[in-house]
């Protein structure tokens, strides 16, 4: 038998197909949102980045459960399309679109002002919106664009809505992080776009580490208030998250992803679990994996002293001078 015979042996194709089937069967975790009977009638939820990907399916689930859902999106046209789709699919007319650009602190303040003026309560906040693979861009607030969108914007949004959530208890905050946080580092000059390498997911990984660090510190500060805060990894999910990556990377991601990665609907499960499940009631300061298990995040994300420092720096950076 030659090397060519080994390489072209049909057994490889059969093994790959079998592996793909096994991975597909395992993609559904033990918790099925459709089997969860929790209703959200009378509850209000905000989902950022709800016009596509994971966020749209989180919003869809909340709408099915009867919640008043606010889709916090940056694009009016994309947001309107999602609003229409969610209303049609769920028959829930209490779905609303509000525009916010999370990379801009002014926009986040404007959005929050509108919510505080118009909403009597807020029971669920899902900080889902995120970007990856952006080239170097500094926002008008002086922050790296990816840091502003993925961390500082959501950090300010949460802070501004916190009193409303404290008056709406029990209330839950769910922050979408990523298993990629394990490749992230903490260097506070990163916030301003300094000492960063703009290649693929390098900047993104740092932002996802800050997500968990600050969620843990927020949870500590919220002890006893009835508001919980947790972070989740949704899994590796076929969405538009790679849209800023080179074509070849996107092509390979889509090709492999078709067989092995989660659909956006499956990617929404761990966030929905944190936001609505009876099993997660009262749980706070934890990091949930894509199969809804509580797992330990990276050591840096468990450093309590670092968390206090990080949180205080983010408070300072997002406060109005
Ligand atoms: N997909 C994965 O494999 C994966 C893995 C781990 C973690 N995650 C996390 O899951 C979350 C959702 O990602 P996804 O995969 O669903 O990505 P996606 O399909 O690219 O959706 C991202 C959403 O965020 C919105 N967004 C981006 N920048 C924004 C800004 N400045 N202001 C307001 N909204 C903004 C987008 O709005 P537009 O459509 O208008 O751009 C879109 O609605 C992210 O936090 C991501 O880090 C994803």
TrEMBL record:
Keywords per UniProt: Oxidoreductase
Keyword Oxidoreductase: yes
Gene Ontology molecular-function annotations: oxidoreductase activity
Tagged with keyword Repeat: no
Stated family: Belongs to the short-chain dehydrogenases/reductases (SDR) family.
Name recorded for this polypeptide: Zgc:64106
Organism of origin: Seriola lalandi dorsalis
């Amino acid at each position: 038998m030659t090397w060519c015979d080994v390489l072209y042996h049909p057994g490889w194709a059969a093994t790959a197909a079998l592996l793909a089937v096994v991975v597909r069967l395992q993609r559904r975790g033990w918790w099925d949102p459709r089997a969860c009977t929790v209703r959200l009638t009378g509850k209000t939820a905000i989902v950022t980045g709800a016009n596509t990907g994971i966020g749209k399916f989180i919003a869809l689930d909340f709408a099915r459960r009867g919640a008043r859902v606010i889709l916090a999106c940056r694009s009016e046209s994309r947001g309107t399309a999602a609003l229409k789709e969610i209303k049609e699919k769920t028959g829930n007319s209490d779905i609303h679109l509000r525009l916010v650009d999370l990379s801009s602190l002014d926009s986040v303040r404007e959005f929050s002002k509108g919510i505080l003026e118009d909403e009597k309560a807020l029971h669920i906040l899902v900080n889902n919106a995120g970007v990856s693979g952006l080239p170097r861009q500094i926002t008008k607030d002086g922050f790296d664009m990816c840091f502003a969108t993925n961390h500082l914007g959501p950090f300010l949004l949460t802070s501004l809505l916190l009193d409303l959530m404290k008056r709406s208890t029990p209330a839950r905050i769910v922050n979408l992080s990523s298993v990629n946080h394990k490749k992230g580092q903490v260097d506070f000059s990163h916030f301003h776009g300094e000492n960063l390498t703009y290649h693929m997911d390098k900047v993104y990984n740092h932002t996802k580490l800050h997500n968990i660090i600050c969620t843990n510190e927020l949870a500590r500060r919220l002890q006893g208030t009835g508001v919980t805060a947790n972070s989740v990894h949704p899994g590796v999910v076929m969405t538009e998250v790679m849209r800023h990556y080179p074509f070849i990377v996107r092509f390979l991601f889509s090709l492999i992803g078709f067989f092995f990665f989660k659909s956006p609907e499956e990617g929404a499960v761990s966030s929905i679990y944190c936001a609505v499940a009876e099993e997660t009631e009262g749980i706070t300061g934890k990091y949930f994996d894509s199969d809804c298990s509580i797992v330990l995040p990276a050591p840096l994300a468990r450093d309590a002293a670092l968390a206090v420092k990080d949180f205080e720096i983010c408070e300072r950076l997002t406060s109005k001078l």
